[in-house]
Amino acid sequence: MDPLLLRKLNAERRARRAVIHLTELEGGRDRIVREGDTVAGTLGSAIEAAFRSGKSGTFEAEGQNFFLNVHLPPARIVVIGAVHISQALAVVAKVSGYDLSVIDPRTAFATEERFAGVDLVADWPEDVLKVRPLDRYTALVAVTHDPKIDDLPLLQALKSGCFYVGALGSRKTHAKRVERLLAAGAPQQLLDRISAPIGLDIGAVSPAEIAVAIMADIIQAFRRRDLRTEAKP
User: Fold this and answer.
1) Cβ-based neighbours of 71, under 8 Å, separated by 6 or more
2) Which of 153, 162, 171, 207 has its CA 20 to 30 A from that of 17?
3) Where is the XdhC Rossmann domain (predicted)?
4) Are residues 85 and 37 part of one domain?
5) pLDDT tens per residue, range 73-131
6) Domain range holding 65?
């Protein structure tokens, strides 16, 4: 690979941007394609499918053979709230191949005993997210039921273009949440992206079942994400 192209690839990866290193197998010409770039024809369809699956491979288009080397940032889940659902979700996320962090300023809940082996931060989300910013490859899960803790990270997640934003609570609870966020200046268009009640509707009751429903919802959102959606300023 050309050194300039390699530097570009490494810079994209450090910035947690998804790219494909596209190589023409016969001629050896190569280039970097970022997620969201427009590529026409059947090659463009193959590139889109590769971004969604995260799998590298060869593809034939327009009489040429290409190798698509896919580089996706590791998808991660940021959970606001060290509750029982979070404990179960940490297990399900690990099995599903997702990194997971839990943030909760309530030290009675955010303990190493309850979250052994989990990336746990006992601090206010607004402080943590300043040094650990959200991005398009992050799912934000808010489960504290406390507006003082949940609301600000929900707004940040929407503005950052997180591929999934979910919040625990009944429809009535969510309606009040939407009222608060609208009053805080969030446009309805963004608030419509919040998955609430959180998770796929599988009739979940227990914390473990709710965690499975949330994980399924996250996986679906990631695999079906809008590849051309840009993060909000």
Assistant:
1) 9, 12, 13, 18, 19, 20, 21
2) 153
3) 77-218
4) no
5) 999 999 999 999 999 999 999 999 999 999 999 999 999 999 999 999 999 999 999 99
6) 3-71
Strand partners, 119: 101
66 lies in the same domain as 85: no
In the chain, the number of structural domains is 2
pTM: 0.88
In three state form, how does the secondary structure of 9-36 look?
Answer: HHHHHHCCCCEEEEEECCCCCEEEEECC
pLDDT class of 229 with cuts at 50, 70, 90: low
Same domain, 84 and 148: yes
CATH number of the domain within which 124 lies: 3.40.50.720
Q: List, for residues 176-202, the tens digit of each pLDDT value.
A: 999 999 999 999 999 999 999 999 999
Q: Using omega within 30 degrees of 0 as the cis cutoff, is the peptide bond preceding 197 cis?
A: yes
